[in-house]
Amino acid sequence: MQKVFVIGGLGHIGLTLAAVLSKYYKVALFDINEKSIEEFKTNHKATFYEPGLNELLKDNKNISIAENISECTKSDYVIVTMGTPVDEYLNPKLKDIFFIVNVLSKHLTNQTVILRSTIYPELTKKLEKRFKKTVKVAFCPERIAGGAMIKELKTLPQIISANTQEAILSACELFKPLRIKTKILENTTEGELAKLFTNSFRYIEFAIANQFFMMAQEAGCDFYKIYDAITSDYPRMNNFPKPGFAAGYCLRKDSIQLASKQNGATFSLAYDASLVNESLPLFVFRQMRKKYKNLDKKTIGILGMAFKPGCDDTRDSLSYRLKHILENEVKAVLCSDPYVKSRQFVSVEELLENSDIIILATPHEQYKEIEDTTKPIIDIWNFFGKGTNL
What we know:
This protein has 13 helices and 12 strands.
């Protein structure tokens, strides 16, 4: 069996891919997160929730922990799941990935390097120059969503981009056992843009819905009556999303990266979308303040702290932005989430009992079981089908 070496192997992207590939290959995981390493060594589990993942990891003899990055020399494929985040000034942070590639370049001779996470446009070509000519480099972006990662790894087409035929063929060979379609791009910059375009498009779509929601709300109109009128039996609006907290580690970050490549001037939509989506928690609070009197004397409960339903990922979650806003303005804030574990959180039952007003921040399916309550529930998703209550 060919061996695969995954850098960032205990994170969301790396471990899920490793678990799926381990059916066909021996996989070594390299990570620096001590908590994740200890959990995997002790219980052979992930430190995050992903449906079906721990079942794939249980008693899996094909996955092991690499103690040192130099062990990559034993593998045919090295998969790098480090991306390029943005800093507090909204500039891409490239230092860490250059550091890892420089370390790898000292060990690799004839392997194939697969860059998996979103990276800054044209970065693959720059990184490629750091390796020996015999090392093949490809950019093969992950395209899966939290909560459905394993299913989508086995079904969604895989984009494979590389600047040489040898790298393309080698990358195709890695994914071949999954029996999924592949989309070939013979230029890694095209692959990078494909991933950035996808996330930016989704982020802008959400921003349009959120902007329309805020406009309808300020006009004193029922957004969901309008939504129903313009989407029902009208195919041109089939893909119009509903409003809600649009967040997560990739959408905003990737949109900003794409804008920074263009110096912001020719892709100002990314900054506009960020302004709209990031301002929604503050808008919700301001609308609350108009409708509900004496908020400074009330306890507010927030249902859902993950950035999206069905997962425990809190990265860039707007639930926390809402929490921070409320903490400065109300008597107390209670938080609950069926997936996110925190000693500061309370049960759903305790939150419902002790809150004066409840905000549905993340529409986890479990909340459908909430029995009718006399407490007002602010529901910008219209998850309960009773309007927003704003």
